[in-house]
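Supplementary Methods, section 5.1.

A reviewer requested that the exact input to the structure prediction be made available. We therefore reproduce it here, unchanged from the version used in the analyses.
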Amino acid sequence: MTTHIETRFYKLTALLLLSVMTVVGFVPRVEAGFIPNTTLSETMNRGQDLTTVRQALENKMITKRLQELGYSQEEIQDRMAKLSDEDLHRLATGIEDVDVAGDGIGFVIGVLIIIALVVLILNLADRRVTIS
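The structure derived from this sequence is encoded token-by-token as follows.
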């Protein structure tokens, strides 16, 4: 009788340890360290941000659109002078992130993936695929 109880106890203990070790194995490892503050140095570069915004404003399409909206060059310059460093940096970063012509690489990769999936599905369905 004692062997049955001891065996059951060992089995329960082993299952408990196994479940605890499994859960502990999924917990991500966390490391702490110092991260340099780069946002402060980026926002302090007002001159470079102003240059970026002014170059964007020299674009004929942007100038035309702002005039259609009723803004004169003086109003634009006045509003730029009133922008805080953070707002100006956010605007300059947004201008730099704009891709005028768009990115066609993502479209090409998407089309190739769709073609590959169609060919794979047809092959799995025992259909013959010929490319001529």
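The radius of gyration is 31 Å. These observations are discussed further in the main text.
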